[in-house]
Design a protein that fits this description.
single chain, four-stranded mixed β-sheet, 8 helices
Length: 179
């Protein structure tokens, strides 16, 4: 995740504020909503990064979009807009979630499979990744990529475990070409 110093500082401040107000879990939920909405809405990202739109108009839109958010979150979003840092909202939210997970000892990992994992298979995979990483609490997401043909790819921070069929086929191809 590419991030800026600004996003890091603001997310640290929000984490401290949420801890002091005992609203840490509520704010984390709000940050997850912010990350997903900003990822899905090109219009919102364009609005936040547009220097021509007045701050008051941006604040009005943000108030309506995040009307169900905790009061700490809404006032923080308003502060970001007042400081002309509303373009950093998604980065601040992503940094907040990462800091929250680090503080709570939650490791996040992504499992890439050819088909979606469900129920028991997902629970088994979560257990496997938990033992693999040596962490008890895992936030596991499943990405589907049919191009891997079969097997799994596990991503955690800067580590990658590739046990996919497509990788094995590439390795066989290399051996055939160079031998």
């Amino acid at each position: 995740m590419a991030t800026s110093r600004i996003a890091t500082r603001y997310s640290k401040s929000l984490l401290d504020l949420a801890t002091a107000n005992n609203t840490l879990d509520a704010v984390k939920g709000d940050m997850e909503v912010i990350v997903s909405i900003c990822a899905e809405s090109e219009e919102l990202r364009s609005l936040l990064n547009n220097p021509i739109v007045r701050v008051e108009d941006k604040k009005a839109v943000l108030d309506k979009v995040f009307a169900n958010a905790d009061t700490s979150t809404r006032s923080f979003i308003s502060l970001l807009a007042d400081k002309r840092r509303e373009g950093e909202l998604a980065n601040v939210a992503a940094n907040f979630i990462a800091s929250y997970n680090e503080m709570k000892g939650i490791a996040s990992a992504t499992v890439v499979t050819a088909t979606a994992l469900t129920g028991d298979v997902l629970a088994t995979m979560k257990s496997y990744v938990s033992t693999l990483l040596g962490k008890t609490d895992i936030d596991l997401t499943n990405d589907v990529d049919p191009t891997i043909i079969g097997g799994i790819i596990i991503k955690h921070e800067d580590k990658l475990l590739d046990k996919s069929v497509s990788k094995e086929l590439r390795e066989i191809r290399k051996q055939l070409i160079y031998n």
